[in-house]
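[job 4471] stage=fold_predict status=RUNNING
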Amino acid sequence: MSNFKKIAVLTSGGDAPGMNAVIRSVTRYALANNVDVYGVYEGYKGLMAGNLRPFKERDVSNIITRGGTMLYSARSEEFRYEEGLQKAIKTCRDNGIDGLVAIGGDGTFRGATDLSIRGLPCIGIPATIDNDISATDYTIGCDTAMNTTIQMVDRLRDTCESHARCNVVEVMGRHAGYIALHAGIAVGASAVLIPEFAFNEDQIVEKLLVSKDYGKRNFIILISEGLGDYGEDFTKRIEARTKIEARFARLAHVVRGGSPTLRDRVTGSEMGVEAVKLLLAGKSNRVVCLRDNKITDLDITYALTLDRMYKGKMKPEELAPYSEEQVEAMRTYCAQKRADLERYYKISMDISK
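[job 4471] inference complete, writing structure tokens
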């Protein structure tokens, strides 16, 4: 076990329900192993500014039920440059901090890698409602966001039924359709539109007309924000072509908030413990992942490369550090992940009416 005396924990990027469960877990487990903990407020911006304080057990009491992050979050352009990184490192040096747990998304992990390279051991924990970190099967906050989406859409369906109406509902997810797809299946949507797969607008309109002829009064279409401004114009075309009264609803940031679900509390707690264990084992530049329902860890640089490969953003030279076997394993993993998403998308189409 490494001779760690103090670690820090921060949250960065968009907030996600379950972040507080991670903060609580990291703090409690570290203190139980005689390691002091500093809570850093406002992410990397706060780390540069020295906005941190020591935590005791009671400082993280009664936070596991709350959404958002009690450490707050803020974006910082300055942290992308060497001057900002050195400010963050100086804060850690001045406070005797030996390692950092960074909770967030891909931008958070890039920051953790930059600090690791400069000598500060860092462990990342994936927390983003979008579930768009390709190296892990699950990111903290997604389950709560999907359940919130279901609750909101169920309420919309009630009024849709009363007025024989169609609601096109846009949900968050940045460039990923995970929330829209899974919530769409769960609410019995007539169609789900996500950026990962092409769709035929004419077929969707025809499906609505057929269902209308069979006496259906309520229609829900879920659309991912990754499709840009498509939803509002599509809503107008639905009404014009089907004569079904149509309304557009953008749930937006409401899905970020709220008390986290059991899954986000438990998974967040488990990942927090694993992050501290990795630091105490002398590990650095690792990200905690859930794969095949097991908690594991990967090199952050590898995880970010895998993420870029899956999203089609990778440059060929990024594969130079990896062996042929590693590259093939990456490709196989990405292919399986796409196949899983396609399977769910097919289910959404097969059972929608």
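[job 4471] summary: The first strand starts at residue 6 and ends at 11.
[job 4471] exit 0
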